[in-house]
Amino acid sequence: MNEVSWKLFAPLSIEGATLLIEHQDLPSGMAVRLGGVGGVVLKPQEAQELLLNLLTGESWVSSRLVWAAPRLHIGQKGYNLSERAKLALIEALQSLLVESQGVAVNPMPKETWQRSLLEITQQRFTSVEEALPKLGEVLISLGFKGICLWLRDSNERTLRLVGQYPEASPPEDLLPERHAVYFQVLERNLLIAADDARQDARMTELRDILVSRGLGAVLQVVFHGESGLRGVMWIESIQPRKWSNADETLALAMAQVIERILRPLKDDLKIQTPERKSLAVKKSEFELNLAQALSLAQRHGRSLALMRIRIEGMNKAQTEQAAREIAYTLRQSDSLAYLGDQGFALLLSEVRWTAGASRVAHRLLGRLRAALSGLKVGIGIAMFPQDATSVEGLWNQAEQACQKALETGGGIRLLTPGAAELQEALSQDGLTLHFQPVFNLSDLELVAVEALARWPKPKGLHQAGEFLPLAEQVGLMSAQDRWALDKVLDQAALWKPSGVNARFSVNISSETLVDPNFPTVLQEMLSAKRLPADIIIIELREEAILSDLETASRSLEILKHLGVSIALDNFGTNPLPLTQLKRLPLDWIKLNPALSASENAPLAKAAIDMVHAVGTKAVAKGLEEQSQLTRMKELGADYGQGHILGWPVPAEDLGALLVWGIGT
After folding, report:
1. Is the pLDDT score of 354 beyond 70?
2. Which residues form a coiled coil (predicted)?
3. Which DSSP state fits 595?
4. CA dihedral in degrees (639, 640, 646, 649; nearest 10)?
5. CA distance 262 to 225
């Protein structure tokens, strides 16, 4: 970027300091710079995401910018944004984004949809019925038809209409038996843009509803909870239309208003500060909730989870921010207590499996790390009945797990059987890596080796699938990922002087992907070993992206900017929509091994064509026989991996594989 090409859009005065807002036209679109020389440069998509999170109050992290209301950190500088300053920044970003789309910029009117929506987000609605007319008026003022909201019945999967604006004849309920395909689409997506709804295959089962309501296009935001699908909100248009990034920003901001009603904020919770020394002390309301939930779980054969959350070095303002972040993740059935210097206690009274509690903890850990940058966060989880069967037992287990997490640098811990042994194996180099080759199918040239974790034990070598689920349950995935990356980079540094061209592929988990510090950590690891970023291919599964689509996408963009290649593994297990797939900065897409079977050849061809359509390389996996290798090459796969091409080999045999392409 040319320094002299930056154009000043507006200087923003914040507490006596000046925040410069500049822009520059680039071949790829307009760039926005906040903070002048040495500040942060945002692509239009990043500016759009910052705008959304300013509107909703959600925390947001990019490579050198952190927004955690009311603080905006740009590089080494921090600003406290008053409501007036925040609104000025919102309107400046919106004007620049409009300009970047080639629309002439007029002075911002006194009443913009951003201002209206900001005012709505600051109101406290007691029900969705109260909020929908306000949201509907904003939509109608922008030329949309209106808004509809369906929510799930408490004990059923049916989605029932709870409100619409403007009022009209109510559409039918959405039934999983009658709308099976649509429910699958809802369960796999966060945002669904149907530009021509009546021609969209995902909406075929809803044609009667679309016709009766006179709809040509529908933009849908899906609400998910720990127990599954919670509901869907429709923003409706009479005519077919191409939904823009600005439309999606508006939809997500409105969905946040609904979410805040469905998930009460911190101010709606009773945060106790009990003087706790032991459970013999008078019980707090939280402890009564825990005892009651435990009794119900025992009676009905259900599970529950108790979390202990401690954050080292918080001041009063940060404590309040942490409470908001924690409370925002809660469901109606959950309970939260503040324990003073001992942090927080969180009860998840409806948990179907251990991994469910772990997912909540990972989501919570990401929010806290983003909001409280630099502070050590420890989360300990105790599960009933796996870890303890009494209130005291659960409390002790959760507290010990939390302490273990803090002692090892922060993160999430469970004291589940087998966890200590696995943690010891990680800390004492008890795991090992094997490497499997990936070949170019056109000339059988070695292009990469994939690192696969193994656990040598007295009874034999354990495959990754035998112990990584435990690592995920007990919060050790970040540690496992860091260990694997360190070992892979050791091998890359060892063989780099020999002139080997092959790259090293390593799998990472959703826990690592949504950690805002991960790109920086990886960059430091590469620098320490004097390795170029393009020597590494980061592999991740669709589930890792779907767990937190927005955060995952941001991390991938940063990694791509560093020069790291990105591979999507096992494509077809939980297929991402094509619209989302195109937005991800992918280099490879590795197909589900089942597609290599002869009976799945038509599906394999369709998948390969889709991979090529989004501009990435297709990698065929699970190639066990010559016939599979020949068929997948004929169908257009670029690269291949499987036993017919090479078995995974230990590190001591890696040299032969890298230099001559020979495995054992």
Report:
1. no
2. none
3. G
4. 70
5. 10
Architecture of domain 115-262 in CATH? 2-Layer Sandwich (3.30)
H or E, element range at 450? strand 446-457
Res. 349: pLDDT tops 90: no
3-state helix, strand, coil in the chain (%, to 5): 45, 25, 30
Q: How many CB atoms lie within 10 A of CB 128?
A: 18
Residues forming CATH 3.30.70.270 domain(s) in the chain: 267-416
- Across all residues in the chain, what is the average pLDDT? 81
Supply 508's token pair. 């990472």
Q: Where in the chain is the domain with CATH 3.30.450.40?
A: 115-262
Residues 455-464, mean pLDDT to the nearest whole number: 85
User: What confidence category does residue 277 fall into, taking pLDDT thresholds of 50, 70 and 90?
Assistant: very low
Residues in the chain, total = 664
Task: Delimit the CATH 3.20.20.450 region(s) of the chain.
Answer: 425-660
Could you tell me the two tokens for 288? Answer: 């009564």
Q: Assess contact for 108 and 97: CB atoms under 8 A.
A: no
Class of domain 267-416: alpha beta
Residue 62's φ and ψ, nearest 5 degrees, are -120, -165
Q: Report pLDDT digits (tens) over 146-181.
A: 999 999 876 677 899 999 999 887 778 899 888 888
425-660 in CATH: which number? 3.20.20.450
